[in-house]
Structure formats: structure tokens, C-alpha cells
Amino acid sequence: MSRNWIAVASAEHVRHGRAEGFMQVCHGKAAPLRRLRPGDRVVYYSPTERFGGSAPLRTFTAIGTVRDGGPYQVDMGDGFLPFRRDVRWLDAHETAIAPLLGLLALTAGKSNWGYPFRFGLVEIAEPDLRLIATAMGAMLPE
């Protein structure tokens, strides 16, 4: 049975990964990516536009399905060796989280709703994933 996840990264990093067909979390750490299995679904939440940026964005920026294969390491050429997973990204539009906060089981009724996102990868319930996908205009594969 597939699981559903929210991954956290700046929108700039998510857009790069989406264009190249991969995901990274927690600054390229492998351990969180090992929790994912092929067929799992992942949605990215981007608190900011750029890594280290201070202006809030608070938007869901990508949604897709983890492809076959496990985490793999790449050499960015500058000594940075992050781990990645391949993802089949769906057609979707970026969507602000604010209108969904009271509807998502993960955030409803919580004044500190952003706390779970600090971990970089959090499992979510199927209804939450479907709600986000609908808001993003994404068609989830069955």
C-alpha cells in the first residue's frame, strides 16, 4: 500500500527538481528518502521562494509519485553530494496553503500548524493528499 508524504523545500529548489524529475529533502540527506517506496505520493510544501530567504511563500509547489529505484547520490561539482529520489511529477499549479489549513487533518485547529514541516518529510493521510491534489488541479493516478 502506498503512503503519502509532504516534503519541504524552497520553491526554487522544488522547481529545479521538478524540471529534472527528482526530489531532495533535508539538504540532501539519504535517511528520509529511504522511508519512501516506489508508488508513494509526495507533495512539496515551500515555506519560502529561495533557500535561506526570509519572505514567506507558504505554498504547495509540486505533487508526484515516487518512481522505482532507491535513493542515489549525485556530485554537484562543488563538494556537495546530495541524495535524490526519482519522481514522476504531475501537471499541477502551485497553491497557497492558507485556504486549506482548517481542512487538512495535519493542520486543522492547530495554532502552530507549521511545526511538523520542520522535519523536512512528514507522512500525511490519504484525505489530506487528495484535498491538496484537488486544490492544485492535479489528477492522481489510481
UniProtKB/TrEMBL annotation:
Residues 4-134 form the EVE domain. Signal peptide: none annotated. Pfam families: EVE. This is UPF0310 protein SAMN02745746_00748. Belongs to the UPF0310 family. InterPro entries: EVE_domain, PUA-like_sf, UPF0310. CDD domains: EVE-like (cd21132).
